[in-house]
Amino acid sequence: MYVRYINEYTFDVYTKDEFGFLTPVILDAECHDFVDTPDKLWVRTDHHIYIVDYFMDAMENNKITQLDYEGSPINLNVKKTFLSNE
Asked: How confident is the model at residue 76 (pLDDT cuts 50, 70, 90)?
């Protein structure tokens, strides 16, 4: 999965196919936090709103862990990549 930053709250998500082409998964998604529930985010697209549960571990350098729908941690590794237009 590749995430393209658009602005402070908006992003696109792509996946790379077997030929190396990027295919959109989510376009123009907005991400915001809940004011009264600091451990939840909501992601909104033109058609859906998703709730994302996570926790931040202050003891481990503010490491963020996303939780699946059953509350189990999801291991995510993020690597910053710059894409160029050809």
From this structure: low
